[in-house]
Amino acid sequence: MTAEVKPAAMQLTERQEARRRRILHASARLASRGGFDAVQMREVAENSGVALGTLYRYFPSKVHLLVATMQDQLQHMHETLRKRPPTEEEPAARVAQTLMRAFRALQREPHLADAMVRALTFADRSVSPEVDTVSRLTTAIILDAMGLDDSPTAEQLSAVRVIEHTWHSALITWLSGRASIAQVKIDIETVCRLIDLTAPAPAG
Amino acid sequence: MTAEVKPAAMQLTERQEARRRRILHASARLASRGGFDAVQMREVAENSGVALGTLYRYFPSKVHLLVATMQDQLQHMHETLRKRPPTEEEPAARVAQTLMRAFRALQREPHLADAMVRALTFADRSVSPEVDTVSRLTTAIILDAMGLDDSPTAEQLSAVRVIEHTWHSALITWLSGRASIAQVKIDIETVCRLIDLTAPAPAG
DNA sequence: CGCTAGCCTAGAACGAGTTCCAGTGACTCG
DNA sequence: CGAGTCACTGGAACTCGTTCTAGGCTAGCG
């Protein structure tokens, strides 16, 4: 059965890939039920048929695990969004539309969203690489939505970063019940006006 | 010694007020040293000369404690900032200047900032009232910096909310080492352009 | 003065994240 | 085939947030 090589840079064998998937799946399932607190490492280990020590070998902490779960979910979402690109014309509107779609997707699994976002913002330096990956994925989603012809300008990238900030923070306030969906929509639309503001050539 | 009355709405006696202060002080001191993890409830209790159970009577969780600590620090900062209002002319520049000042103040105690911000974003629904207070304080600081003559429009309030989102999230990325101070400055300045965009009458 | 009601103290106890350890099993190399 | 290596297993152990218990102190009141 398939030689299990491991050339330095963390190449997983099939078995290991399968284990990893089982773990991520169990994590997402538990998170969907009861959010951050419901993702208990012992239970994740049990549900994915893996010893606790092994779970920790794959994901060195609960936060790592949940951030990886978020990566996974974001990838799905990115593909889904790609398949149905925004219908709006203006970049700002396109981005706002896309983010609100993503938002509604998260709404369907609020506990899961809670777990992932809490992990993301609670992550310390030891999780930076993984959090960065999530950030890059989010950036990619937004840039896709903008539908640019050329590569973005520095100004536009700043605007995108600010949009990401707003997106995360708005998500948190919604998840902790301090803002309504309507509120979030307004905030997203407000921040997206920055895109028009930083459009490169003709519009001013 | 001073009658200890308690009229329904959590009025503290002098002794109790003193205890509360000692606790907050110990919390801030420990946080300054080693951030979120260094604030250990047993140690806070010991350092403030109070039993563990009492600590929990005053602050029902570590997150409550740290959010209260943040309230405290923000109040200080608000007063400090009030004393030296921003020198810039334009509202957007004034807000950016003020936020960068606040940012540099936090830079001086990065561990403390870390602890407070992590607590803030990790807070769940049970801490909503306290988190809301922090949010209102932040809003007040920004509105002060804008130096408006009249009360802000709904549009301006949206812009302020987005600025707050950006502020918190940028702070997190800086604290977790994923963005430089220069980066944060750019983001703050970028988002502050929303203020010009939402100015009420003459400018457009 | 003695009673009652609260708040406080000291410390045990419990739960979940994390670490550690001894043993086992599978695959590789000789 | 035999030996070594390394990932995996099962479970104990440790830490720290949180809760609980028993008892003591103060303040007001009859």
Q: Can you tell me about this structure?
A:
The structure is a homodimer of 204-residue chains. With 204 residues, chain A is an all-alpha fold. Chain A has a domain of 136 residues: Orthogonal Bundle (Tetracycline Repressor, domain 2). In chain A, 74% of the residues lie in helices and 0% in strands. The first copy, chain A, is built from nine helices and no strands. In chain A, helix 4 packs parallel to helix 7. Chain A starts with 13 loop residues before the first helix and ends in a 7-residue tail after the last helix. At the A-B interface, helix 6, helix 7, helix 8 and helix 9 of A face helix 6, helix 7, helix 8 and helix 9 of B. The structure holds a DNA duplex (30 and 30 nucleotides).
* Oligomer designation: homodimer
Output the radius of gyration of chain A.
19 Å
Span between N and C termini of chain A?
62 Å
Task: Please tally the β strands of chain A and state the result.
Answer: 0
The assigned CATH architecture of the domain at 62-197 in chain A is Orthogonal Bundle
Task: Give the CATH H-level superfamily of the domain at 62-197 in chain A.
Answer: Tetracycline Repressor, domain 2
Unreliable stretches of chain A, pLDDT < 50, 5 or more residues?
1-9
Number of helices of chain A: 9
- Based on Cα principal axes, name the global outline of chain A: elongated
Fill in the keyword field for this structure:
homodimer, 204 residues, Tetracycline Repressor, domain 2, disordered N terminus, DNA-binding, TetR family transcriptional regulator (chains A, B), transcription cis-regulatory region binding (chains A, B), DNA-binding transcription factor activity (chains A, B), HTH_TetR (chains A, B), Homeodomain-like_sf (chains A, B)
